[in-house]
Amino acid sequence: MQEPIEPGYMVFVADGEVGVGAVREVRGDSRELVVNIENGGDFTLPAAAIRDVHEGKVILDVEHLPEAVRHALAHPHDAEDPSYAAADPQEGALEG
What per-residue confidence (pLDDT) applies to 73? Predict the structure, then answer.
C-alpha cells in the first residue's frame, strides 16, 4: 500500500533525481493533487500520474501527465541564478 501523500512532499520525475516541485494540496482522499512545478506553476494531477510515494517523496508517472505538465518538467530549474544553483539546470528535468 502506498503511503499517504501530504502537502509539502517533494515531487520528482524519477527516484534519485533532483526534485522539481512540491505538493501544495491533496484533494478527495488523494484522488487529486495540486503540485507546484518549479518555474512552471501549479498543476492539478490525478492519482494515476503518481508512480510511487515514499519517504516524503512523490515520484511522477510521466506517461500519465498532460502535455503542459511535461513541458514544465522539461525546464524546472531554468529560472535559477546559476551562481546560487547547487546543481546543473538539467538535473531532475524531464528529458526531451
Answer: 83
What's the pLDDT score for residue 78?
58
> Do the Cβ atoms of 70 and 81 come closer than 8 Å?
no
User: Is 78 among the domain residues?
Assistant: no
Structural domain range at position 32: 10-73
Contact 57, 12 (CB under 8 A): yes
Question: What are residue 25's DSSP bridge partners?
Answer: 34
Q: How far apart are CA 29 and CA 15, in angstroms?
A: 24
| C-alpha span between 87 and 84 (Å, rounded) | 9
What is the C-alpha to C-alpha distance for residues 17 and 10, in angstroms, rounded to an integer? 11
The mean pLDDT of 41-69, rounded to a whole number, is 92
Question: How many domains are there within the chain?
Answer: 1
